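Sequence of Cinnamyl alcohol dehydrogenase 4 (Eriobotrya japonica).
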Amino acid sequence: MGNLDVERTTTGWAARDASGILSPYTYTIRNTGPEDVYIKVLFCGVCHTDTHQAKNQLGMSHYPLVPGHEVVGEVVEAGSDVTKFRVGDVVGVGLVVGCCRNCNPCNTDNEQYCNKKIWTYADVYTDGKPTQGGFSGAMVVDQKFVVKVPEGMVPEQAAPLLCAGVTVYSPLRHFGLNVNGLKGGILGLGGVGHMGVKIAKAMGHHVTVISSSEKKREEALEHIGADEYLISSDATKMQEAADSLDYIIDTVPVGHPLEPYLSLLKLDGKLILMGAINTPLQFLSPVVMLGRKTITGSFVGSMKETEEVLQFCKERGLTTMIEVVKMDYINTAFERLEKNDVRYRFVVDVAGSNL
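Predicted 3D structure, token representation.
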């Protein structure tokens, strides 16, 4: 185990203020406790939430802040009570690294909804020190919040599944939508949206991508596997598609009207919100009442669901569409991500970067 007299350090790329610009930052990480695994970070996916947090757009950031919550790494050291992992295992860490373990969500495998959950970064751990994310050389994480990457899965491919993948898998499973023959809509074709198409198709659904422009039509239909492509500004096509979908996964991370999409849902259809939006959303209640429709939300997934989605994708040969970059490209990647200029997820090659 680590020498308790010597503080362990690592280097990550941190935002220092709400400009959100990242630069190298060396900081201490805790020694490996009995339930902890010490992980050398190999790859880390880049999520919209990382840019929101770096710029304090959600109002909860603490600086210096090292983002990154789609972390894939190798176990370098395991605590004395760790039973799930061995040195050399390739593992994943998502958006949550702690919870109270006593509340109803914690006791029902819904720990991501614990009111005392601890975020992977921009939070304070039980030892009183700030949590820092996966844009870093190493992390120490409680084994409960670590998952094993299935053998044979390419590590950089696994990274986006730890947030984007489980974010769409969880509501489909929870709301009983993981059955064959449904008609689903994916609103927004980004990192989460492209995984939504792939996972829904693998569950046997007829999938319509709903987008604001023509520019991703060919990719959606020919490369990602959607069945239909609907442009939200085309009033005629939107009218033709009314009352046709069992659910819509809404991945748009900025304010937008809900009524056009609610009209696409069948009786008892569900609009499932996934974008972290800090402005109010509006709709007219009759649009919901006259179809007994539901507006709901879902937040990443549980540790159990994270393990499931990795296995689901491995068994069905599902891959993520990624662009691998080095850490010194991260500020450019953030700029491109905010312009939706990525197909469809940036993944940082952390181990291959000079931090």
